[in-house]
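User: Hello, can you help with two protein structures?

Assistant: Certainly.
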Amino acid sequence: IADIFMKNKETVLREMMLNELKITPEEFENPVKLGFLMSLYLIIGGLLPLIPFIISLFIRIPFYTSLLSSMAIMMASLGIFGSMATKYTGLSKLRGAIEQIGTGLIALIGSYVAGLLLAHFITIPPGLGY
């Protein structure tokens, strides 16, 4: 029976997808649609943390207040996007949110440390910084 079953590659692939990997063919959406959604998430996710700094251009807000507000917005948006992504990952909403926030915090800390290190090598002309 196994020899007969293994002759049809399409049947073997479908069987592996359904029973071993727990993937149904209906889960595969249009890649163009998924690419568009991903780019939309990246644009929104990139613009949200800039809101406090944009507001500080019009209203005098201390830099560190804008920075902390930006970090809070970033963590909230990562949590929301992480829980939304569980539709595709199969994780619980809480775990998806925590993983996204954790990954974002690692990226945030790495970027901040890189900025501190670069500040020792690159000088900013007076008037451009806070």
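That covers the first. Now for the second protein you mentioned:
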Amino acid sequence: MPDLIHILNGDALAEQFPAGLPGTRLVNRECLVEGPVAGDTLPVFWANRARYLSATYPDTPEAHYQEAVAPAFRQMQALPASVDISLWFEDDLFCQVNLWFVAHLLLTAHPGRTLWLVRPPVHTPYGFGGLSPDALHAAHAARRVLPAEIAALWPAYQARDVTALPQAAAALPDDFAFISAAVQAHIERLPRGDDPGRPIKALRRIMTRLGTEAFGPVFQAFCAEEAIYGFGDLQVHRLWEEARG
């Protein structure tokens, strides 16, 4: 039986991961849905990400990236083709962009390997966080093979190619239509001329409806109405500041 590898999107999932599910766990701690993603090589890419995250989150020094984020990616690169890899990622854009990168990384290392996708049975703002240990076991039992075409999504996203990205998503089998939904949400969030993008417009609409600009209730409403983005409080707070400007 091949070695079992679970690649988890974030420490929160790692903390609730069922102890009875065998295998080695690797944690993705990136948030590639925000910030620059340029870099011709992985070392350059990681250096760019470290600088951005350090500048955006002052409590996160650049060294933290090399110590706590990049090592998991190096381990993923080194995984032999024979291991059984389950990718635990949800349907929202935040998770999907990370999935596209991880899948591309793994399939670049071994183009013919099989990757399995584990998703929550129902897309909600709580994702895996709302599942019991038994439900997480059931989600793993229901995992599906990721089509090799998934590898085309990351290069298109990295290149900011809003033509190639939806084309890559449309090339996937019909039961992966949730990826096209995430791609569409990404395209709609991009500013165009006087259009600030879907998230900013949603925040302004919510503030008008609620009659308040207070972050707490606005954040809760945004997460409920725009769950497709999967943004956390830090991402929404920056958008909220822009929406109020």
